[in-house]
Design a protein that fits this description.
Length: 414
């Protein structure tokens, strides 16, 4: 019996999706709940599983096609009949087919990296179960490819002393990487996520009056807390005590004191929120995503750190759900992990505020008349000047600064 594989119900506000990768080809056997194809929306990647065991007999939508909810993607023969004789003979899972890259032996995250970097899967050493290529295998392959190749040692024979060396051989013109024209230019369409990021950034610049205020924070108190309690914290919660949980708690304290920063504009009205859903900007292989820590005011440091680690893993694997990316009343972004010393973060509409963290750097500062070396961080608050006045923005940032420099304030709520 033939059954149809359809596009699942798409998240609210998502009209369509793009077919980005088929894991199976026509004529191949599929198992129930095995991932057949990835669909990319402007926020998340959805995996479409096989509804029954059988054989994939027809693929109706190819990579790059735009599809809508309930549209037919493929047909599966659950009786195994109708399989074409031209299908490939089965081969061991650990064995890549001759003649080039084959991504069917790679997991979804690994496949995306292979496509993005135009790699030959057959050249990647697989360590996964059954010979599958894992994401870590691809990253190791990329790391090895980027290492400088040692210079060959100069020959010691064949040249008489004092007579110089032979001229180097003439090098052939370097071949262009795949996809580039003769002038070294390559064109590729934006991914759905990248196009959505671009749209939202332009929207933020066009609709909000964005202004940024700066301050600097002495991170000595937080570093000392991590030194004293880091091991005990990890034993108690199973995660390391990072800097981000301190900033989440500090921002919640500042938002309580300055609720206008936690507000947004809608149809000429100001919407005030009595909850604190903090978005954390996270870099992923597909681009920037902002998962939400719901009700951050009700969470302890351990719960926040567990959420951060979970979101970072899901972002790397492309496994964030739509619910995890929807909403948010305020956002924190940390360019310091990439070495940024100072920046002006852009708002995440419809939010009215975003805090930018930066690199911690030892700098000389004046303390009680003496010059001392302290670990300092520049912080930046970008805000919508249509509803937030400069004084309110500055006071918000000062509240964050005070809480970070004296973490005991977070416990005493002062």
């Amino acid at each position: 019996m033939n059954i149809e594989v359809r596009v699942p119900a798409l998240p609210e506000s998502v009209a369509d999706a793009t077919v980005v990768n088929w894991h199976k080809r026509t004529g191949e056997t599929v198992r129930r709940d095995e991932s057949l194809v990835d669909l990319e929306t402007d926020k998340v990647v959805l995996e479409v599983p096989a509804p029954r065991d059988g054989v994939l007999v027809e693929v109706k939508r190819k990579d790059g096609d735009t599809v809508t909810a309930d549209e037919v993607l493929a047909v599966i023969d659950t009786d195994g009949a109708g399989v074409q004789d031209v299908r490939e003979e089965p081969r061991p899972a650990a064995q890549a087919p001759a003649g080039g890259a084959h991504e069917a032996v790679a997991g979804p995250a690994a496949q995306r990296l292979i496509r993005e970097h135009r790699l030959d899967a057959a050249a990647i050493a697989a360590t996964g179960k059954g010979g599958r290529i894992t994401k870590e295998d691809v990253l190791r392959h990329l790391d090895a490819a980027q290492r400088p190749v040692p210079e060959p040692a100069a020959p010691t024979g064949g040249v008489s002393e004092g007579r110089g060396t032979a001229p180097p051989p003439r090098s052939e013109p370097e071949a262009r990487p795949a996809g580039y024209d003769e002038r070294g230019m390559r064109r590729e369409p934006m991914s759905r996520l990248r196009a959505r990021i671009a749209e939202r950034m332009v929207e933020a610049q066009r609709t909000a009056a964005i202004l940024t205020t700066f301050n600097e924070i002495d991170m000595s108190g937080v570093k000392e807390a991590r030194r004293r309690y880091g091991d005990a914290f990890e034993k108690a919660h199973g995660v390391r005590l990072g800097f981000m949980s301190f900033f989440v708690k500090a921002c919640v304290a500042a938002l309580r004191r300055h609720p206008i920063v936690n507000a947004s504009i809608e149809d000429g009205d100001i919407l005030y929120y009595d909850h604190y859903d903090i978005g954390l900007a996270v870099a992923s292989p597909r681009g920037l995503v902002v998962p939400i820590i719901r009700d951050a005011d009700r969470l302890g440091f351990g719960e926040i750190e567990v959420s951060i680690n979970d979101y970072a893993r899901k972002a790397r694997d492309g496994a964030l759900s739509m619910d995890e990316l929807t909403g948010g009343t305020f956002t924190i972004t940390n360019g310091g992990v990439f070495g940024s010393l100072l920046s002006t973060p852009i708002l995440n509409p419809p939010q009215s505020g975003i805090l930018g963290m930066h690199r911690i750097q030892d700098r000389p500062v004046a303390v009680d008349g003496d010059v001392v070396i302290r670990p300092m961080m520049y912080v930046a608050l970008s805000y919508d000047h249509r509803i937030i006045d400069g004084e309110q923005a500055v006071r918000f940032l000062v509240t964050v600064k005070e809480a970070i420099e004296d973490p005991s304030r977070l416990l005493l709520e002062v």
